[in-house]
Amino acid sequence: MDDRMNDTLEQAAALQKLWLDSFGSMANVWSQYSPESPPPEEMRKVRSGMLKALAGTWDEYMRTPQFMEIMKVSLNGALDLKRMARDGLNKIHEQFETPSKEDLDSILLAIRHVERRLLERLEGVDDRVRDIMERLEKMNESLGKKNGEAPEKRGPEAGGKRKGRTK
Q1: Are residues 32 and 89 located together in one domain of the fold?
Q2: Axis-axis angle for helices 65-96, 3-30 (nearest 10)
Q3: Per residue in 17-46, pLDDT tens?
Q4: Structural domain containing residue 44
Q5: How many Cα atoms sit within 13 Å of 24 on the Cβ side?
Q6: Average pLDDT, rounded, for the chain
Q7: pLDDT in tens, 65-78
Q8: Do 67 and 130 fall into the same domain?
Q9: Could you tell me if residue 160 is inside a domain?
Q10: How much is the pTM?
Q11: Which long-range contacts (CB under 8 A, 24 or more apart) does 55-58 make?
Q12: 70 with 23, same domain?
């Protein structure tokens, strides 16, 4: 037999032992009482004893390496199933030539990247335009001083119309 079969048999034996221990513990609790109908308080004690016995056995079993291995295999199987389903859906999208979630995510990521780069460039252009406007104002002031005229304000600070272009 291979190791996988041995592991399966060991896990089945562990589960069988769990059930046998549970029923043995319950039998011990029930053996304390007579077959006559017990009073309600006694029934609560029986129920409480049974639940404690079951909880103790199951708690003990869930802490065993075998149970942990079963849970690990089960969770890995669930993750593999999810991965297979996702791959299958991606193949279906490919066949019907429709975009998949990954396709849309990559497009959105590319758009965000382009947007970020455009905003950085626009900020640079804005700084350069502001610098050019300041230089033009300084040139107008220096020309006005040379000609003896009052400097003419232009741009958004002047509050007037822009010269040169019409809309």
Answers
A1: yes
A2: 120
A3: 878 887 777 777 666 656 565 556 777 787
A4: 3-96
A5: 8
A6: 80
A7: 888 888 898 899 99
A8: no
A9: no
A10: 0.38
A11: 56/25, 57/18, 57/21, 57/22, 57/25, 58/18, 58/22
A12: yes
